[in-house]
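Table S2 (continued). Query chain:
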Amino acid sequence: MISSSLYIYMPAHLLPARLPFLLNRKLQPEVACQEVLLEKLDFERLGDCATQLREHGLSTTLHAPFSGFNPGSSKKRTRNASLKLADQSLSLAEKLHARRIVFHPGLTYGNDREVLDIWLKNNLTFWPEFLARAAEFDCTICIENIYETTPDIFIDLLTAINSPQMGHVLDIGHWNIFGTGKLIDWLNATAPYLKHLHLHDNHGEQDEHLPIGQGYVPFSTLFAWLKTTKASPTITLENHSLPDTELSLQVIQQHFPQL
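Corresponding output:
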């Protein structure tokens, strides 16, 4: 059962200028903080935008910065930088009244079990303070797959954390490039923890962020699963241009008219 909440990718520094478009189309933004440093964003102005969206019955999701972020690092400098980014991201999420905040895991490609165990152990001490803060404004922290070939490390983390304030966001474009198993197996394994989806297409080699249906992602499998599962993830169409977003909107609304 799919959630009724649909979002579109929106760079944080463009939110004020594109607010009239969002309000006119009744579209909700996933505010993405990758193109401009958090220190250069006007949190108050972004908060005002979120207030206007809320007045029209619309909500936000936040995508935290990922450059230099690794909550499982044992390196003091990286851990301190990650703590600062998480702290700033939670502050912005609160300003935005964000329902979800997406973080990358910080893992590189092809780690062995020893590295993953260290990453997992460090995550267990990294997240509790931020989960407590997220609970104060009813926000869920979601960990996104990037280079991971299976969902095992996310299941290990979420089982150990065991908090309703933390879940998984499946980026289906990343899965299409790096996943080694069947999509249905990933979906079934993560269903108890699946809070959010990033939808975009590619041809299996590069992160192209194409409109749905223009690459090789098996969306028919995903859509069929969403119509029968008890999981109810929210969705972001993560296309990086408005024309591509429009094309994805047409497809998703054909399959899920309630969106």
